[in-house]
Amino acid sequence: KQGVASDSTSSAENNDQNDGESSNKLLKILRIITKVSTHWRSKLAFWKRLKKLKEPIKSNSLLNEEYKEFKDDELLEQIPQEVVQPSSIQSFLRIGQRVGVITCKTICVPTFNQKRFAHDLIIRKKTGKPIIKYGPGGRSSVSGNIATVFGCTGFLGRYVVSKLAKHGTQVVIPYRDEDSKRHLKVTGDLGQIVSMEFDLRNEQNIIEAVRHSDIVYNLIGRDYETKNFTFEKVHIEGAERIAKICKELGVSRLVHMSALNADVNSPSKFLQSKALGERVVKEQFPDVTIVRPGYIYGPEDRFLNRLSVFSYELMVNHGETLIRPVSVLDVATALEIMLKDETTISSTYELYGTKAFSIEEIYDIIDDLTLRKRTRFNVPKPIALAITKLLSYLPWPYVTPEDIERYCISDKPGKGVTGEVVKTFSDLGIQPLEFQDTAIQVVRRYRSNINFNQPMDKNVGRVKKGIYYVDY
């Protein structure tokens, strides 16, 4: 080691000598890896040898004569100066993590923070297809997965498509109406959203939609029956058709959307059909993941919006039915996690909110959030069924007899299709949002113009403002 003062102690000389030896080793490794190595095994050997240099290098002037020998080497021209002159092995690794890779003319040495490794190559057991992801993660990256989302144009489907495409998953969106899927095109990067026109009764359309996919989400459902699509045709026959085709084509994963309280003995035809749909799907695709959400609320829902729109409040069962509303964002997040979480295979999930509310309590929360007091009526169930039966003949019925039946059934956890214990949000590592804290995002639109921007807390003083206006 040069530059050591003549009056230095022998221990200091030994330390400097060790530092010099370590720095020489480091430089030799750099020279070898940049000049000779062109194979990934040599890269791996480089890092193994680097880890053996456990002695910290304390000297800041490392190169001296060594640098003179290497500085004119063309292979080292593109190595950053701070990488060639590290103050310690730790700082060398830290610099490597910052620059990402050390680039030379003959080789690109990966550092510890790189995003793509050998384990990113996943082979699906059933299909044998490789799934390769690349990119830093995000909208413009590629996750390597292809997902088909049936029911993508519905309330929940648009959130699922957005979350999948946000992380680089290519999403196939089967649709029936051209206008209903336009807003989904911008949820993913160019080429990541693939739209296909389909009919649930046409098997060839379903085959074209799922034959390239690694996972299929069946979110198709009806809240009320129509002439062409009854509960049986949609929830049972349609679900069975999708599950059968997925099994025949070797699709790795199938996620089937059911409903909380699904029971073949339920007084609600909707819940009966959902329970029967679970059975037939389980028979056709034994590894299916079944999801049973409670009442889902969000900006486009048919739950809170229906209870908030009128200036009066109608209840059945005296508003004593207990339900557990769940945010659409929580359900969409759970479905996104199921894409890669293999523990969700052949499982049943019941997704519901953290707290049970009666219908009357939900009306109270809506009135508090919208800052209005509405007249409340209790309608006997037979009368409500008769009225809604007449309303069901409208092209788009607002309330149906099925809604009345479901408003009389309290939410309660059940068992899986084969009697197994069901899983919940906690098994996916999700903490559901609180209903009373997030419902304002849905019902604020029903405030008057004077109170539109007022705080939601009763204890916060409200100053009356003028008519609400937009300040350009």
TrEMBL record:
Annotated GO MF terms: protein-containing complex binding
Pfam families xref list: NAD_binding_10 (PF13460)
Region (Disordered): 1-21
A GO-annotated cellular component: mitochondrion
Listed InterPro entries: ComplexI_NDUFA9_subunit, NAD(P)-bd_dom, NAD(P)-bd_dom_sf
Domain (NAD(P)-binding): residue spans on this chain: 151-298
SUPFAM superfamilies xref list: NAD(P)-binding Rossmann-fold domains
Name this polypeptide is given: 12134_t:CDS:1
Naturally occurring in which organism (per UniProt): Funneliformis caledonium
